[in-house]
Amino acid sequence: MTDKKIQLDIYTSENPFLLSSHSPQETSTLRGKVSLRLEKPTKLCSLSLHLKGHAESAHINWKVHRLKNSSTHKMVDVGLNLFKSHKDSYMLTAGTHIFDFELPVSNHLPETVQSNYFDIKYKLVAMAKRHLSTNIVATKPITISRLSEEVDEMEFSISISKMWQSVMGYDILMKKQVCLGENVPIEYTFRPVKSGIRIIKYSHTLCETVRYVDPKTNHTKVEHKRVPLTSDPHGRGSNTKFTHLLIPDGLQPDVTSDMICADHKLEVKIFVDSRGQRKSITVSFPINLMSANELLLNEPLPMYEETEYSRSLPPVYESAQITAIGA
């Protein structure tokens, strides 16, 4: 926020911020910097930073119950003091003051979600308190994601090789992690067991299951969605087929939390002509559906201006304490 002569900004080392596990006894560390730019010497009482999160109902029919019986539900409010004056205020020199922060965040927090029934949102709030003057506040939205508990064993591709009795063997190869709006390549290899087998077509359906839980009433709602996918087939020889599947936007990416769980499967149906008889087989397997944010690499911190740069911090800065605000 800019107040003519005072500018307060928040920078994080990563956004989205990744939680490393699901255990509420463990924490992940959110790191970054708060920049305070002063045009002239200014007295401040304190400078604090808070992570705030809430679930906000979408006001769509939740049967008899409405999420938490109110429009919002606080998920977290934790923070730290970057400095606090021992007296009424502390005089900071003109220039740019940079405050590094490390904020422990519970790994049990739900991920950032935008869904049909509620949204889960997080933001960082920095506040510079002034004696007998208006406080300066800066906010920064932040996305929280979670690494899979099986990240070390995660399969990045799907390779299926099976035999369709008396008809043919088939291989299916594609990547397992797909993104909303992406064109995903998938390759088929068919091995007919006898002559006269002809592939007519194959279709693809994305199956989505989302389970919502009201955190106050424990009321549960489950939604199932079947979305036919468009494809662009190409030939690679008589028995090898190659196509691209267009993953539509508007679906709920994979998520696992106490309030919402979403998972996806790809259903493939293969139709063949076997000497005048039409036959079909359906193959279904799980895939990981992600948003574009989850594919972003950690972004480096922006460059800070070295001119008017100052680290003349109050003496209590190094002993800043973590504080938790009760729900």
From TrEMBL:
SMART domains: Arrestin_C. It comes from the Eukaryota. Residues 164-294 form the Arrestin C-terminal-like domain. PANTHER family: ARRESTIN DOMAIN CONTAINING PROTEIN, FI21816P1. Pfam families: Arrestin_C (PF02752), Arrestin_N (PF00339). This is Arrestin C-terminal-like domain-containing protein. InterPro entries: Arrestin-like_C (IPR014752), Arrestin-like_N (IPR011021), Arrestin_C-like (IPR011022), Arrestin_domain-protein (IPR050357), Ig_E-set (IPR014756).
